[in-house]
Amino acid sequence: AAFEWMKVVANNKLSYEIDWLGIPIIQTPTDLVLMQELIFKVKPDVIIEIGIAHGGSLVFYASLLELLGKGKVVGIDVEIREHNRKVLEKHPLFKRIALIEGNSLSRKVFAKAETLIPRQAKILVCLDSDHTKAHVLKELQLYQKFIKPGGYIIVFDTIASALAKFNSSDKKYLDNGPAEAVREFLKKNKSFVIDKKCDKLFISTSPNGYLKRIK
Fold first, then answer.
1. Exposure class string for 53-69: b at 16+ Cβ within 10 A, else e
2. Cα 79 to chain center, whole Å?
3. Rounded Cα gap, residues 96 and 173, in angstroms
4. What is the CATH number of domain 2-213?
5. Residues 98-126, mean pLDDT to the nearest whole number
6. Which pTM does this prediction carry?
7. 68-84 average pLDDT score
8. Average predicted confidence (pLDDT) for the chain
9. Which GO molecular-function terms appear in the entry (predicted)?
C-alpha cells in the first residue's frame, strides 16, 4: 500500500506542491518529519546538501539549525539558477546557508566544502543530485570522509529504480539508481549500516537510504 501511494505521489508530482517558508522543497511530508527527528538527535554543526533545486530543503535545514541555535547548511549544485540564488540570498535564514556551484565530485568543490567545515564538527550529508548509480556511489565514497561515528549520510530517492518500472520517463534509473549505489557501497564499506528506524513511516522517497556510521 505504501509503494502504491508513492507511485501516486510520483506520477502526480505531489512533492512539487510543497513549500517550506515560501520556497519549493520537493520532498514528502514524512521524509521532512524524519529529517527533523534526525537533525534534532544528531545536532550537526554542518549539513551538506548536494542537489539543492529551488533551495527549499536548504531553508528547511537552516530553520531547524536556527532553532538549535547553531550550525550551517552548505548547498552544492552543478548549476544554481540566478533566480533561485536571489530568492535564497533575500531569505532571513540565509545567514545559515553557504552556496557552492559546481560538480559535487570535483576536487575544487570538495576542497571548498572542506574550508566551510570547522575542525571536529559533526556533519550530516544529504545526497540529492544526479540519481544514477555511478554518480551516487562516487558521492558516497567521497563524502563519507566527513562523517564521524554516530553521523549520517542520507541518500534521497532510493525509490527511483523501483518507480522506474512504472514510469517510462525514469527508465534510466531502472537497476541504476541510488538504491543500487547504496547496496554497492555497503558491500565494501562496513563502517556504515542502514538505520531501519528511519523507515518506520513506510511512505518515503528514500527507503534504506539513511546510512549511519557505526565505526
1. bbbbbbbbbbbbbeeee
2. 16
3. 34
4. 3.40.50.150
5. 97
6. 0.95
7. 98
8. 96
9. methyltransferase activity
